[in-house]
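Supplementary Methods S3. Complex input for the magnesium ion-bound model.
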Amino acid sequence: MVTPSPPPDVERLARDIRTGDRTVLSRAITLIESKRADHRRSAAALTQALLRDTGKAVRVGITGAPGVGKSTLIDTLGSMLTGHGRKVAVLAVDPSSRRTGGSILADKTRMAQLANDANAFIRPSPASGTLGGVAAKTRETMLLCEAAGYDVILVETVGVGQSEVAVADMTDFFLVLALPGAGDELQALKKGVVELADMIAVNKADGDNVARAKLAASQYGAALHILSPRSPNWSPPVVTCSALKGDGIEALWRHILDHRERLIASGEIAARRGEQQVKWMWTMLEERLFEPLRSGRALKAALPRLEADVAAGRLAPATAVEEIAAMLKL
Ligand SMILES: Nc1nc2c(ncn2[C@@H]2O[C@H](COP(=O)(O)OP(=O)(O)OP(=O)(O)O)[C@@H](O)[C@H]2O)c(=O)[nH]1
Ligand SMILES: [Mg+2]
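Predicted complex, serialized as structure tokens:
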């Protein structure tokens, strides 16, 4: 296969990223996040140039209801890992408008240790957009971080909408955090999310909560038992931990490494990543194809009228599609 040679500045950027320079990495991520067509071409050339330097990290997705302790866990786990000599990148997928400039700051304060750690790199979620768009940017960012030498990637997403699926689709291990509580906690966790879980960790197992956390863990364990696991080589464990106190975090990481070892041996990690790459290609293409619908000014102006006419029965949907296709020159 012949790949068009990237413009020289991209080559230099790629070289500087490989040295692990954080300022360069941040600049490259900004390029990835840009919507400008020329930036997008450079960004694609950049990821292509770095492709062989990617893929070596342990990729972990972390989800759970707001306030369950995801950021606190990432801070504790991430600091433990940098203490082991790892380089940790923390990314996020949050397509909702929930998060504005202010809470990016809040995130950094909740990851106070990591935010000041030279071997950690924290990048907030790309600004709000479609889930597909936000997830695509986070995936590319993950690749850049790997090329820059980060060997653990932690991707946080809040348990709303479809963002968990997007994060499960870009990671090797999907960790679901839950809270200690009565049986109805289980109902609170969406079934679809539990099905994606490679492990459930009942967090805040400290102080008065320890017994309740253990009880919740055994209930989750029973519930997981009746679901068919994602991999024939892995039964998702249920653990308890305290992200705040650090209890159970070493054990949690050992499970992640154990999973990795087994799925590398069975070839599943490689197969899963291959499928993910193809899926990314299609989602990016979809995004690209829909782009003119969102950005074409004439079309954007015409869409409300077309929708209204279709809704009122004045215009057949098929005729509306013909009109739109003509405007898109399809
Ligand atoms: N007691 C106790 N409190 C915790 C623990 N982990 C987190 N918390 C507290 O729970 C609150 C929420 O923690 P975060 O880490 O911000 O939770 P999050 O899941 O990242 O929240 P969002 O990003 O808003 O969805 C904070 O006040 C934490 O101090 C824990 O293990 N034990
Ligand atoms: Mg958080």
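Residues 70-71, 107, 156 surround magnesium ion (ligand 2) (CB under 6 Å). The radius of gyration is 22 Å.
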